[in-house]
Amino acid sequence: MASSATIQSSVHPTSDPSIYQEYESKWSILPADSANWLQRAKDVAAVLAPDAAAREKANKTPRAQVALLKHSGLLKILGPKEYGGGEQPWSMAYQAIREVAKGDGSIGMLLGYHLLWAFSVSILGSPSQIAKWTKLITSQNLFVGGAVNPRDSDLVITSDPSDKTKIIFNGGKHFTTGAAVSDLIVLEGALSPESFPESGPGGAHIFAYVPTTHPGISFSFNWDAIGLRLTESGSAQISNVSVDWEDALGWDATTKSPLENVLGIPYATLLLPTIQLVFTNFYLGITQAALDAAAGYTRKSTRPWPYLSGGERETVAPAEKATDEFYILSTYGTHHAHLLAATALVDRANEAVSELFAAYNQKKGSRAELTAQQRGEVSELIAAAKIVVTDVGLKVTSDVFEVTGSRATASKVGLDRFWRDLRTHTLHDPVAYKRREVGRYVLLGEIPTPTWYT
């Protein structure tokens, strides 16, 4: 399959993949166990961190960083060993996302979205589709992006008038994280009521993988948010992209209808809590990196305040070093404690998701046995984790300036990018609705009705 590296940005310059060429051979052997996979993610973060702030300012399309992820093997951490993957649980994949986000929030986000879209077929697909796409994505080390925003039916699917075995996607998507630098893109569209009146007024949705180099796919390269600037999350236009019915995930190519034993079960809705936990883990990685970066700056550069508030009545001399300042020590201690608690909650959610996928999967033939209650309880645990990490993260990434000083606001220091990255994505879906959702679960015992954001 042709690489999407042939697609050139019309707005931003592109980073050069050759700058990371040495890691193709250095990391040519996949890690053997969980501890080494975690170390590989930390190694990637160590490569990314030193120039993360400078790269963000340069704002180049991150083809080099995607190449680095490919060299690392992290793109196939979840893939079956029979196809050359790591066959690690989601709990390890989540930790890898978090670690990479410590080095660069944008690249951690790209890794997280890729893993979700690459795994989507295992949630939404039929057994034959799972075998086909999992093998292709894993064995060829493909990077997967997405043109998915089900909130808007802005990508319409019609029947191919000349070939009833195909459907055609037309329209656009406002957000397409990672798609412009991908090898495969997940298209999500709604069936046209005119072409498919039986689908109802809302139009059923279909997900399908398509090569990013398809001539009908073009990107605007117009991502210009305050944070996560290297995710290429701008818009895309889709024109007459033809897809075989056989590749409509979870649909019967003969009857042109959803497979009830695939899409009509609670398991198929796991896509949403799974990606919500992707978000939560890279939020956590960004927050941890912010506190670490601030601490390093405080040790090296922050000056103690030379005055005390009590005047002549004061019996204690000003601190000689910033690391002796009471309020600085108190702030770091508080944030560290809160991050430890947040991490424990996120890790608990990570394990819960892994346990679900281990117990209910296509290999065991038990996907249909997952109950709505089980799905709902895990979803509420993830919602709680997202609430806590969002609150702690926004507080920490803002407070780092209180403990570093005015000189730390210099552009070259780059402490502001942590807050900007976190603030940008925590608006993805209102956390207020997560609070209400968890509240109904606590007070009324209600699990949430699955939606595109729950």
UniProtKB/TrEMBL annotation:
Domain of life according to the entry: Eukaryota
Keywords: Flavoprotein, Oxidoreductase
Domain (Acyl-CoA dehydrogenase/oxidase N-terminal) ranges: 44-138
Pfam families: Acyl-CoA_dh_2, Acyl-CoA_dh_N
Keyword Acyltransferase belongs to the record: no
Coiled coil: none
Transmembrane region(s): none
Oxidoreductase among keywords: yes
GO function term, MF aspect, one: 3-methylbutanoyl-CoA dehydrogenase activity
A Gene Ontology biological process term: L-leucine catabolic process
Gene3D superfamilies in the record: Acyl-CoA dehydrogenase/oxidase, N-terminal domain, Butyryl-CoA Dehydrogenase, subunit A, domain 2, Butyryl-CoA Dehydrogenase, subunit A, domain 3
Domain annotation Acyl-CoA dehydrogenase C-terminal: ranges: 278-428
Record protein name field: Thermophilic desulfurizing enzyme family protein
Source species: Sordaria macrospora
